Amino acid sequence: MSTLPAAFFPPTTPPLYSHPDFGPDFQWGVSTAAYQIEGSWNAEEKGWSIWDAFVRGRRAIKGRETADVACDFYQRWPSDLDLMQQLGIPNFRFSAAWSRVLPAGTGPVNNKGLDFYDRLVDGCLARGITPWLTVYHWDLPLALQQQGGWTNRAVVGWLADYAQVLARRLGDRVQHWMVLNEPMVFTGAGHLLGIHAPGRRSLGAFLAATHHATLAQAEGGRALRAALPASAQIGTTFSCSYLTPWRAGLPRDERATRRADAILNRLFVEPTLGLGYPTAEAPLLNRINRYMHPGDEERLPFAFDFWGVQNYTREVVRHSPYVPLLWANLVGAARRGVPYTQMGWEVFPESLYHMLRQFSAYPQAPRLLVTENGAAFPDVVTSDKQVHDVARQAYLQACIGQVLRARRDGVPVEGYFAWSFTDNFEWAEGYEPRFGLVHIDYATQQRIVKDSGWWYQQLLAGEAVATVPTFSSAAEQPSIY
Question: Which residues form the active site (predicted)?
């Protein structure tokens, strides 16, 4: 068990800021994902997704939990949007569940499922909330996985067709679109490490899925561009972590860090810019050539209007002779004796600043938005139904301060979306980690706005100033795992 020290923040964190410091056009919002919140997993002719199958696997999820009900958003979306409106949140990023719209992944549309997103978009607009739609957030239809899923090159066309189904129905009202959510995670965790759906552990599967996802990222963008009004804004999102060597100045750790950066931060970014895969720093990526077809290099780039930057932590990298091909591993926060969250991620708000700088350094980079950032800490509901989440509020304040720091340094970052609006099903970790601005009692589905949520409301209303909290005694320091 680690505790959050008073010296929680790096000295470069701006100690004070308020809403006007970001300018009138800065986009503020919250993010969610269909599988993590909707529930109603087989309602109204919805098909199975790979996550519906994966959670039923033996010991796949901590506590053997499922997202069959989750936050029951499919039924409770009007009241959740009312709460979002009450908090003054102007932008809502959500995803559509592919198998709710196309139960078999291709073929006939399930109008009941598509009607749900129709109502959701209209519900947002009626409340003055702008919808931001992610086409794919990890929940591939099981029927497509049974044909190879992301390892089958046909997935490029499947994704493009699905994107156009959404665009044709919702494109007259949804102006902001994202093709993929964090392809590095769903390819790496799902096809190499086996800890996410579909649960594969194969370098070949990872490389095939990587190339097909990179192609789908671009082809999905082109499919949307063809189906949407010219005014629509099309982006995609990337997971990222600021990487530093375990022993600065040690050549083998420095080289390991560069290899890890090529995989974790550059693998999906550079092909979309026409730079190809970063094989010079990560030679194992040369093996991806076996999955490339003539003309693929010309199909990989796409001129996105924006990138979504999704950052939660930094990682420290050391050389490892026990990890073939990459020759590197990550040194965890617990081992390093630094504060960390329920997810085991180091509390390091400066990571966001560094990744915004890194992505903006590409000459062809589009404008940036932070489309996910947040922290999971244990919540305690008081007897009077309040959640005083000091650590989460402090973390959000510090990270938003790092966004302002980046803007002041000339980085074209134009928005910040907190992850997440409500607590939700956190994939392989089940329901224990809580990221939300709003607490959910999963037994009763009661919603309680946390102190961090009320602070975010005040910030967006121009009534709050961010300050760096200090803790006068050890007893006041929130414990984190």
Answer: 372
